[in-house]
Specification:
- Two copies of one chain form a homodimer.
- In chain A, 42% of the residues lie in helices and 17% in strands.
- Chain A is α/β, with parallel strands linked by helices.
- In chain A, the strands form two sheets. The first copy, chain A, has a six-stranded parallel sheet with strand order 2-1-3-4-5-11, sandwiched between helices.
- In chain A, helix 7 links the parallel strand 3 (121-124) and strand 4 (144-147).
- In chain A, helix 6 packs parallel to helix 7 (133-140).
- The longest helix of chain A is centred in the C-terminal third of the chain and has 17 residues, at 299-315.
- Chain A is elongated and about 90 Å long.
- The first copy, chain A, starts with a helix and ends in an 11-residue tail after the last strand.
- Strand 2 of chain A pairs antiparallel with strand 2 (95-102) of chain B.
- Chain A binds a DNA duplex (30 and 30 nucleotides) through residues 2-4, 12-16, 18-19, 22, 26-28, 31, 46-56, 117.
Chain lengths: 342, 342
DNA sequence: AATCAATTTCAAAGCGCTTTGGATAGCGCA
DNA sequence: TGCGCTATCCAAAGCGCTTTGAAATTGATT
């Protein structure tokens, strides 16, 4: 059933039917009701491509997911992020189109998306220091919103980020307050913007108390479970091992914990852990008592909100770009305790 | 730059340019080369909506992701699955469109997808016993392929599944061979097809050796870490606790392990665990030595392959529907050992 | 030189929608 | 009665592509 047939059935013109369906005022309320009813009965839905052709908009938002070439890994926060974003999209009549791309090849994907008119805007995931995708998107004129920020990029753009620096500063302070001095930082890849900021927060806190930073206690890689495990095993072998670990993700923290327990140590007593918690639905931080002391910020909320911001920006490209900074909560769980006197 | 402009630039008709670009034979190779060059230089890409309107195809595949209303949880295997599928799509010029839907509301989403012509086919995730989505999709005439199967559904359809029954039968046999008799089953939700089959495999193996099945040792829920933890804590309190756990996912197995270690037991010595491993990129089962003894099957491979099957089916709807059954490997890791004599 | 077939190109219709620019009818008012 | 308004509806153009059916060109054949 298409518009033409529907209009013929009703003995009306396509124009009138289209207008009625799209809520324009210049149609008699009685006929509008008649049209709505008929559309309902025939289960009519406008063809999205035809509509898009006519309006010049696709009513779709693109997500370009970078896949690390090293581990062929997709960031596990991703499913929760799009669950949030998807909510916003369906509420606003947008589709979500996804491209998974080996990182490096992204430029062509964005150009395609724009040139072929597949989407009205994109969400940029996994921003890096001086991310070149931002000037690229500005250049090709594709509206975008960034999940995170790109340090070093001047000029306004639409973003939503967690305050990673203050979160990790507070987490470090918390550990310092407990008497820890040998605090390891198990970070994400340090060309990723969030990892840089977290490191910054850690360094700030350490410097503020004049605690020396030992480069051997800082690791940085893709945030897998195995990475947490291997790094921890390694550091615990040191002559002067860390008494606390500051970890960039729950999954990595699980690996840290595995290493700790394998070494016969007890988490929260012998060794403390603080991790960042994105509140992933399948990996809740315990039930009522949190397993890990954590800096917490829901990535699903971020998805929901950032999608709203992008839609706003798409609908009104001339308005100044919005941005938002979520503050992470510091949740105290069972994984931290005062440093053990030797 | 659109077709018309490109054709004018070249002094040719739209027809010829279109044909040249789409590889039709009735165009002089010299002019084709000229056209290809010009298209390249002007960075021309056909508008996808116009093309879709003209051809009646959208060159997009839909994924409808059910989100559990209970935990607002998206299955964590999902990101790896689409990473695999996405590879196939980009190789074949398809887009991927995603809808995250609270389960229950899916029928309307499928109808929309079909009526609005957003996609040429869909991948059906998380099939259940007697899944009504299959007759629905047949009814509305939207080509589909199922990740998994739907027990109880008669009639052919396109699917790809892991042999869950044989995998869990072998895993159970393996534990029985080690002398375990009190084997707990920590399963996914048992209206999910895969969970039914896994339970079937477990029961088969137990019955084949006339080992009684204790219903108190069988749990079934969404496969979170916390679920694994809570179930295990609970069962270890029994007067006659299990000596082995058969677990439906790595994440849940992490929870099982947490409970075991918290109880002061050693995994692989005091208590054994076998889990299913979907080979998620961020949650590899150890580096060289597997952490868990596991039934292993890559969900990313499944995504890659199922997408191919669906595209084949979309291109030739009259061909008989394909199906494929992956056999899981049984990987022996450090989480299993002979039962401890008390 | 005339004919025919194969090769190469083109004009125009059509895909299903929105939207512009009228047309028509009904109304109050002078 | 006739005018100007408003309310309501419509015909047709246009979005950017593919594809049908026909025309023009070429080369070979007689």
């Amino acid at each position: 059933m298409n518009l033409k047939q529907l209009a013929q059935n009703l003995g009306l013109s396509q124009t009138t039917v289209s207008r009625a369906l799209n809520g324009y005022p210049e149609v008699n309320e009685a006929t509008r009701a008649r049209i709505l009813l008929a559309a309902e009965q025939h289960n009519y839905r406008p063809n999205i491509r035809a509509k898009g052709l006519a309006t010049g908009r696709s009513m779709a938002i693109g997500h370009v997911i970078p896949m690390s070439t090293k581990h062929e890994m997709v960031n596990p926060i991703f499913s929760d992020f799009i669950a949030g974003a998807g909510e916003t999209y369906s509420r606003n009549g947008y589709d979500m189109v996804l491209s998974v791309v080996e990182d490096g090849n992204e430029a062509q994907v964005y150009r395609n998306l724009k040139a072929r008119g597949s989407v009205d805007g994109v969400i940029l995931h996994g921003p890096r220091m001086d991310d070149m995708r931002i000037p690229l998107l500005n250049d090709i004129g594709l509206p975008f919103a960034v999940h995170g920020r790109a340090s070093g990029h001047k000029g306004p753009y639409c973003w939503l980020d967690v305050n990673n620096r203050s979160a990790f500063r507070r987490a470090t302070d918390f550990l310092l307050d407990l008497g820890h001095r040998r605090i390891a930082l198990i970070n994400g890849l340090e060309f990723m913007d969030f990892a840089i900021r977290r490191r910054g927060g850690y360094e700030d806190a350490m410097a503020a108390r004049a605690v020396p930073i030992d480069p051997r206690l800082m690791r940085s890689d893709e945030m897998t479970e195995v990475f947490g495990y291997v790094s921890t095993v390694d550091m615990l072998r040191e002559t002067n091992p860390p008494t606390a670990f500051l970890v960039a993700s729950m999954i990595t923290a699980l690996g840290v914990r595995r290493a700790i327990e394998e070494a016969g140590l007890v988490m929260g007593r012998d060794v403390s852990i603080v991790t960042h918690d994105d509140v992933l639905s399948y990996l809740r931080n315990g039930d009522d008592v949190p397993i890990f002391t954590a800096t917490r910020s829901s990535v699903r909320d971020a998805g929901r909100r950032l999608a709203e911001m992008l839609i706003g920006h798409v609908n009104d490209p001339d308005s100044p770009p919005q941005s938002e900074l979520f503050e992470a909560e510091l949740i105290v769980g069972g994984s931290t305790g005062p440093v053990r006197r030797v």
